[in-house]
Amino acid sequence: MAPSWQRLGLYASLLKRQLRDGPDVIKWGRRVIPGCSRGIYSATGKWTKEYTLQTRKDVEKWWHQRIKEQASKISEADKSKPKFYVLSMFPYPSGKLHMGHVRVYTISDTIARFQKMRGMQVINPMGWDAFGLPAENAAIERNLHPESWTQSSIGWEVRDQGTCRFGVCNIRHMRKQLDRLGLCFSWDREITTCLPDYYKWTQYLFIKLYEAGLAYQKEALVNWDPVDQTVLANEQVDEHGCSWRSGAKVEQKYLRQWFIKTTAYAKPMQDALADLPEWYGIKGMQAHWIGDCVGCHLDFTLKVDGQVTGEKLSAYTATPEAIYGTAHVAISPSHRLLHGHSSLKEAFRKALIPGKDCLTPVTAVNMLTQQEVPVVILAKADFEGSLDAKIGIPSTSLEDTVLAQTLGLSYSEVIETMPDGTERLSSSAEFTGMNRPDAFLSLTQKARRKRVGGEVTSDKLKDWLISRQRYWGTPIPMVHCPACGPVPVPLEDLPVTLPSITSFTGKGGSPLASASEWVNCSCPRCKGAATRETDTMDTFVDSAWYYFRYTDPQNTQSPFSTALADYWMPVDLYIGGKEHAVMHLFYARFFSHFCHDQKMVKHREPFHKLLAQGLVKGQTFRLPSGQYLQREEVDLTGSVPVHANTREKLEVTWEKMSKSKHNGVDPEAVVEQYGIDTIRLYILFAAPPEKDILWDVKTDALPGVLRWQQRLWSLATRFIEARVSGKVPRPQLLSNEEKAEGRKLWEYKNSIISQVTAHFTEDFSLNSAISQLMGLSSALSQASQRVVLHSPEFEDALCALMVMAAPMAPHITSELWAGILYNCHAEILECFPLQLGHRTRRAGPAS
């Protein structure tokens, strides 16, 4: 039987004959790729020796669409294959990409290409986080309402007869920008959060949370503009505490708000962190955000002068097992009961003596034990963590003992220490005789069953306030009925769509409240007159479950198919900015845990590996006054930068790119100047992905990747010239020294394959992967001419180099591969190489 390299050479020669006969496509295994008249090489009939800027542009122009078409033909339907779900955080469709977008999406695209080459079923979806404050602010600034602004910026296409259809104006522009960067997303899975076919299911999940007792209303402080009479987001309050619009001093005001009870999942979410791989410090940030889950909240009803008031109070204790020893419930002087709209406000205010612990005429009845104890206003304003109410249990707290004795409060000792040192409960109803750990579990379980608290959480984690007095957000699907109270909209009536309001000024409270025809409705339960909720949801709700929708984006019957979610989830690699590593990640994990408990998915955690990439920073020049200068206003000829006109010395820093700091870089201009692959390689090579990039094209990174592309081109040129010289490769002619040189290349190539594969799959240090490939290309460039001509090991290593570089620089490697194929005696490398045995094997299924 012929040696393996001769068989491969036969296959290659048959392929070349097929190419010369002029078919339009070549079949590689199960895939279809462009063929015959491809690339600069085929167009001229000669290999271009010099890799100039024009050559780069010609190569990218030729291969860009062909690579895109090839990617679109790879099916995701074969569920018998292993899957890989790579997800990058989706953008707000502002209409313009910045270099931060370029970085995160280049990383995700590179990983997706690599996994496809391994034979995996891959999705790399993209969508648009389209609701939120930016559109609303833009509307106010332009004297429009958000719908009008949205029509012109996020995308309404004007049709005949003046009708409008929600389209893709800004989105289409951003898609073109992404496409020009050579990014191949799974566009058939595209989602847009402001479209009813998406936010219908956001509303569905909210109702499921409400039915589970995890969505509720209570009074909470908001930022109030007394001039415009409206609620402000934190971003609309300047550093002096004034309104961004009116300039008025912002006040704190209590309004009834909607919350999601994220504290109910604090303990399971904290525990689940232990089962996740290390997230480069993010797990620690998540753990710190949640806090130590050692206690729980319990619910109380309030009385005054022995009369039930209808008011409720939730208070925290770190020792719920000792609840039968409660002496009092303490609230802080800043509690909503003293400052909000409570019917008990006057009773509390009359009892308040600033600076003293005050006994009030209000009592609290524990909804679990039915014990009735007094409510006390403590002198200190700041409680532990984020608490404003806590349960006083003298048996477990010296501070509570002193307070109870000072105020003359009665209580029972409920903790007994046994001779062996264990502690057991006494005078505690059915929990009497239990040790404390068992009693903790039993009592909190009973409280959860009765829905009167009991979820184990920390003293620092708050429930998630999701109400926004905004127009451009998902309407909260609730109806307020005088007889029935809050009632969810029936599921069959979803979505509750946004009304078209006739005027929008940004003043006077929630914009939805002005749409009277929309607000006034009938109660779904009793059919009486009722009103719709006029708050919209925090946009973090929209992005808290979008990763599920990508698995089944066209589903009209449910948010997603359980079967499809179970196949694709969890996300194998989630990529995004570190600034979202706490709040967004926490909310996304919460929704995933909730959907698991609702039997919608089998996995609790939504993300397996997390890559929080650093920022792309630009150089800034700032006057002593704090004013940022444009680069054209700076004189850089001296030892230190100075103002070109005034000669003032400037403070030079590296900061996140922004228009206001004049340090931004237009991705399209950079691509035009250097080419797609150069920018991709620079972004990947300039720094490890978790570190910040200081954007400076004069540094070693950009010249380095330009030189490397030149070296790859030179390697292919040398190989092609050797093979077209008329000589036939004959390995048997190699001397022992030359064969040893080939074996050394083979061993080095195998080592590089192992290291590069680890970088792609484990630490995602793509900068290190590029460094390894640079090393391999250097070794190949030093090979003797006879080894280039005759050695199958050289040929094998050259092919492996091109294929390993392909996920990062798809255009140049496609052209190099096209040229090598005409002269190559190795099999076609459609898959990523593996280090197995004496010959390089390819990952993925056999053809």
Number of helices: 27
Q: Would you count the extended β strands for me? A: 37
Specify Rg, calculated over alpha carbons.
33 Å
Q: What's the CATH class of the largest domain, please? A: Mainly Alpha
Strand content: 15-25%
* Shape summary: elongated
CATH topology of the largest domain: Isoleucyl-tRNA Synthetase, Domain 1
Question: How many domains?
Answer: 5
CATH architecture of the largest domain: Orthogonal Bundle
Domain Leucyl-tRNA synthetase editing: 288-350
Catalytic activity: tRNA(Leu) + L-leucine + ATP = L-leucyl-tRNA(Leu) + AMP + diphosphate
Family: Belongs to the class-I aminoacyl-tRNA synthetase family.
Domain Aminoacyl-tRNA synthetase class Ia: 61-274, 461-617, 655-695
Can you walk through the features of this model?
Residues 745-818 form the Methionyl/Valyl/Leucyl/Isoleucyl-tRNA synthetase anticodon-binding domain. Residues 288-350 form the Leucyl-tRNA synthetase editing domain. There is one protein chain. The chain has 27 helices and 37 strands. The chain has 847 residues and is an alpha+beta fold. 37% of the residues lie in helices and 20% in strands.
Task: Please give the structural blueprint.
Elements: H1 4-20, E1 25-28, E2 31-34, H2 39-44, H3 53-72, E3 83-88, H4 99-117, E4 121-123, E5 127-128, H5 133-141, H6 146-155, E6 156-158, E7 164-166, H7 169-180, E8 191-192, H8 196-211, E9 215-225, E10 230-232, E11 251-260, H9 266-272, H10 282-290, E12 295-304, E13 307-317, E14 328-331, H11 336-339, H12 345-351, E15 358-366, E16 372-377, E17 389-392, H13 398-407, E18 415-417, E19 423-425, H14 436-449, E20 453-457, E21 464-465, E22 467-468, E23 478-481, E24 485-488, H15 516-519, E25 520-522, E26 529-532, E27 536-537, H16 539-542, H17 546-549, H18 562-568, E28 571-577, H19 583-597, E29 607-613, E30 616-622, E31 628-629, E32 634-635, E33 642-643, E34 651-656, H20 667-674, H21 676-685, E35 693-694, H22 701-723, H23 736-763, H24 766-781, H25 785-790, H26 792-805, H27 810-821, E36 833-834, E37 841-842
Parallel strand pairs: 3-4, 3-28, 5-8, 14-16, 28-29, 30-35
Antiparallel strand pairs: 1-2, 6-7, 9-10, 9-11, 11-21, 12-13, 12-15, 12-20, 14-17, 15-16, 18-19, 22-27, 23-24, 23-26, 25-26, 30-31, 30-34, 32-33, 36-37
